[in-house]
Structures are given as C-alpha cells and as structure tokens.
Design brief:
By secondary structure, the protein is α+β, with helices and mostly antiparallel strands. The chain contains three helices and seven strands, in the order αββαβαββββ.
C-alpha cells in the first residue's frame, strides 16, 4: 500500500515538473502597479583624488542596434549632472524599449575629441523601471 501511495505522489511530482523556460515569456504589464519614482541609471566619472570630471561629450551605444541613446539625455536637467561628473546611461524613458529583456550598453567618454572611457553595462527593465544588472558605476580616470 505504501509503495502505491509513494508511486502516485512521485507520478504527480514528475508531471508537475517541466523544463519550460518561463523567463522567455513576456510579462503582462497591464495589471502592474508601479511606483511614481522615475529611475535613471547614472555613472560617475572622477579623478584619483575624488574630484568630478566633466567630459566634453559621451555616448551610450546599444551594442545590438548601434544606436546612441545618450542623445535622449539633453537639456538643463542633465547639464547639472554633467557638471557634477554624473552621466545618465539609461532611464525609465527607455523602459519600454528594454522591457522584459536585457541589453548591453557601451559608455564612451570623450575629452578633447579623444576617447578616454569605454565601459560596458548590462541593463534591463521590468514593467515599471529600468535596472542595472552589471557594470561599474564609478569610473576613476588617472
């Protein structure tokens, strides 16, 4: 009798298990409840003494598309960040483009038209916000 019960539970367990990869499915965001926070992923550029470095220009290249998404970061709100040595690489304004996926972005910083920084970042987004998966958010220039 014990063997039959064990066999039934084992059969149920085996039927319930599957090797389907649920991470590929697109999440339905129609019922998501999000905070009103606006997330911006930034990197800071400093020198060895900790002083902020203002780059002359920078690019954030989506390695899959080749598009420079830093063009989206213009205006007065980002001028202040630049003066403080902070550079946005991705924000919730880009969330839909990266929703339920991951992407590799390459940050390139320039001083006097010379490339002085190249850093890669893996990013993603859920139904509500963008997120940094891997990457160095504090870059020290020597």
């Amino acid at each position: 009798m014990f063997a039959k019960i064990t066999l039934v539970f084992l059969s149920i367990f085996l039927v319930a298990c599957n090797d389907k990869d649920d991470s590929i499915e697109q999440q339905d965001c129609s019922t998501a409840i999000c905070t009103l926070n606006f997330v911006t992923i930034t990197v800071s550029v400093i020198d060895a003494s900790g002083e902020a470095i203002a780059l002359d220009s920078y690019e954030v290249i989506d390695t899959e598309t080749g598009k420079n998404i830093a063009e989206d970061f213009n205006g007065e709100e980002y001028q202040y960040l630049k003066e403080q040595g902070f550079y946005p690489i991705l924000s919730d304004a880009n969330r839909i483009q990266y929703q339920n996926t991951t992407a590799t972005l390459t940050f390139k910083g320039f001083i006097a038209a010379e490339e002085v920084i190249t850093e890669d970042y893996e990013v993603g987004a859920d139904c509500c916000h963008v997120s940094l998966i891997t990457g160095n958010t504090e870059i020290v220039l020597e």
